[in-house]
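Onboarding guide, step 5: your first structure request.
Type a short instruction followed by the sequence, for example:

Predict the 3D structure of this protein.
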Amino acid sequence: MSRKKILWLCSWYPAKTDPYNGDFIQRHARAAALYNDIYIIHVAGDETGNTKKPEEGKYQSEGLTEHIIYYQKSTSFFGRLLSHFRWLRLFKAAINNYIGNNGIPDVVHVHVPVKAGLFALWFKRKYKVPFVVTEHWGIYNDVEIHNYQGKSAAFRQLTRRVFEKADVFLSVSQFLAEGVNKLVVEKKYEIIPNVTDTSVFYYKDRKNVVFRFIHVSNMVPLKNAEGILMAFRLLLQQITNVELVMVGDTNTSIRNFAKELGLTGSQVLFRGEIPYYEVAREIQEADCLVLFSNIENSPCVIGEALCCGLPVIATKVGGIPELVNEENSILIEPKDEKALVAAMQQMITRFSEFNHKKIAEKAQSRFSYPVAGKKFNEIYSLLAARN
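The system replies with structure tokens like these:
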């Protein structure tokens, strides 16, 4: 099987300015690189003032090249305008560098239409190269504060143009794809969900003396971490042999809220932001993942927990119902703390009924790198053969 040259144009991607920005895209790239040569271009703005002149770095591993360019980004009105043109110039220069060294790619793949989709449109017009667009941004709803309807006319026009001209539309969830079809343009789509590094997230037998719930998120308001804490306080009034681990940006306000609720350090354990492999270890040492989000797209942590054999309590929002079933989860309505308490009680009571090894095996068959990589390869092969 010949490896094809696939150029990824990424609006989001992990960089030193924000190592978590689009880390799920990076995992998709590693999956795709199992079967094709993937070249990433991402231009990252630095608002700290530490990047006085453009800098760049190339990071290579088998089948994957990550070309990240940094520039100083301004937040003032005229500064933002200047930053936009600076971004365009640097992105175009990186593309010219790629063409000079590698030739024209077989397929272009855009991740998040704005703004990298501009260059996918340019590639298609100038070189007739087909392109794929994957949307990851869950803004196509009326719950997210900064949703699609509230974006500028230029943003909406570019988004529409990219989806219209794309040869293939991929989404990480049906929920997200249907939002695009409803608000942007009707377009046939395929689903390739967020992937999990199963060399890190895998089943380990656990026999906890104290039942351990775990919550992993960036703790923004839509994740409703406060609601989990309030429900956990109610649970402790009925069951004492239980603890809650909170992993993520557990800021001072969340910690103070826990203190106000009278939750001690032995009952609620705040881990803060920790490396990916440590997140895996925390999940492997827990018994159940809890998500109490008001809105979601397709949270990576559900796949990660399932690959470790953990059952999940989550809200019936966004793409979550697509990821779980009655064999591995309990789903509840959002913002219903009494329902969350009841689900936690039920999880403790029914815990032995869950087949944890089977949960892990089925999850790995859905969310592993090879599974997603093969799907990407099928799509790239069809487009390259057609071109």
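Each response can be followed by summary notes, for example: The chain has two domains: 5-195+368-386, 211-366.
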